[in-house]
Design goal:
With 305 residues, this protein is an alpha/beta fold. β9 and β10 form a beta hairpin. The longest helix has 14 residues.
Length: 305
Amino acid sequence: MAVTLDWLGCATFRLTAGDLVIFLDAYIDRVSSAPLVGLTAAEVTRADYVLVGHSHFDHIAGAEVIAPRTGAKVIGSNETARVLREAGVAEGQLLAAQGGERFRLSPEVTVRVFPSLHSCIWVGGSWDVAKVVTGHYGLTEAERAAVRAETGGGIGERARGAGAGDPEEMREHMRGTIGSRETGGALAFLIETPDGSVFYHDTSGVWTGVASTLRPDVAIVAMAGRPNIDGEPIQGSLAQFVGRMADLLRPRRLVLGHHDNWMPPMTTDMATPEAMAAVREELGRVAPRVELLALGFNDGTRILG
C-alpha cells in the first residue's frame, strides 16, 4: 500500500493510504501574507477522515468546511466535537476521543488515539531553534497564570518576521475563524497501515511514557513554542525537543510540522538553513539512524510502501 504525505502548512497534512484520504488537522485557509499552500478548504473534494490534534483555531479551522463537503468523519476531543457541532457539522460525523481509543478507518487501516500535551503557552519560548531556554519549572497553575499575565505568554520574544504581515488582517482573521480558547486536551495519533505506521501530533508536547512505547515507522513532530515534556517546560531548545522525540519514538523517518510562517507578523519561518542544521546535528547525536524529510507544500511525498 502506497502511503503519501502532503504538507499543507502549519501542522496540517494530508495522508493518503491507498484509496483512503486522511487530513491531519485542517487549517489551510490562512492570512493572505502567509505562504500559499496550493489548496483551500473549499477545494478539498476527497477526505474520509479528519484527525484534529487540539481545538485551537490554527488546527481545527477548515474541518467545518471539509467535513460537510466530503462526508469525512472527524476524530478529536470533546471540545473539538463541540466547536464543530456549533459550526454545523452533523453529529454522525463527530467521533469524540480522549486517548485510549482505536478506530478502523478502512479494512486495512486503523488509528490509535493517545493523550498528549500542548506546548507551554503560558510561558514564552524562542523562535531560534537552537536557543536553550530554561526556568519556570515546577510552578503551580496560579504561578503559571501570573507568569502569563506578566509576560503575555505565547512564543515569548518577537518574531524575526514581524512587520511582514498586516496585524489588523491577522486580528480579523482570528475573529472570523472557528476555534476554542481551550485546547480540549491535546491528542496524538498512530495511524497503522499494512506497510507501516505514522505518528502524528500537532503541538510540541509529549507524555514520554506514552511515546516511548509506540515505535512508528514515520513520525510527524511539531516544532514550535516552548515544548512541554511530562507537564513541565523543556529546559533546553526546540532542536533538543525534536531529538528527544526521535529518541523516544525511534522512527525510520521524521517530518517536522508547525514551523512555517503561518500567520505573519506574529510568526516567522523557523526552518532556516541554520535551524535545520541545528536539528540535524541534534539528531546525529541522539538518533543518528533517523532520516529527516524536508517536505514542500502539497508535494505528495511517498513515506511508506
